[in-house]
Amino acid sequence: MKxxxxxxxxxxxxxxxxxxxxxxxxxxxxxxxxxxxxxxxLKDREMVQKIIAEKGSYAPIIFILISFLQVTFIPxxxxxxxxxxxxxxxxxxxxIYSYIGMLIGSILAFYLxxxxxxPFVNWVxxxxxxxxxxxxxxxxxxxxxLFFMFLFPFFPDxxxxxxxxxxxxxxxxxxxxxxxxxxxxxxxxxxxMSGEIIPYxxxxxxxxxxxxxxxxxxxxxxxKNADKINEFIDKLALxxxxxxxxx
Length: 247
Description:
globular
C-alpha cells in the first residue's frame, strides 16, 4: 500500500511538472515569436516601457506576464518593471498589474521549490554553496528574514521564492507574507523610486533615510521576537484555512 501511495505521489508530481513545463514553453513561444519580445532587453526600464507600449491593447496582459516571469525564471529587478508600469499605466494600474503578476509568480516559484526541491533551487541560484549559506542564515528565522527581504526591492525575488520552498516555511505563512510584502514593496517602489510622488531632492531623500531607519529598527525588534511572530502568523494562517474549509 505504501509503495502504491509513493508511486501515485511521484506520478502526480511528474504530471504537475509536465503541465508547468508545457505552460512555460508555450508562454515563451508566445512572447518571443508572437509578441516579438527579446528577454535580454527586459533588464532596462526604458526598453521594458518601449516593448510594452508597442503592444497596444495587449499592453496590460504583456506587463502582467513580464511581472509574473520576473519572479519565476527571468532575473529582472522588480523595480524596473514596476517603474516602467507607472510611466505607461499610471500609479494605480501599475500597482494592480504588478501585484497580480508578482503574486502569482511568487506562489508558483515557491511551489516549484517545494515539489522539486534542491535541484530546482540550485539551478535558479546557480550555486549549491550559495543555497547552503542562505539556509544556514535562515535557520529558525525564516519568516522574519524572508519577510524583510521581500519587503525591500533590493533582493532577487525568483531566488527567494524558490529558496523559501525548501525551508520549513508553511504555505499559510508564505501566502500571508506575499500578500503583505508584495503590496508594500510595490507601493514603496512607486512612491519612492519613480520620483513622481516623492521627488529626488533634499526633503525626499531625508524622508527616505528616516523611513529606512524605522525599517531597520522594526527588523531588529522583529528578529528578536521571531518565535512570537511565527506563532502569531501560524494562528492567523490556521484561522484563514479553517474559514475556507467551512465554506
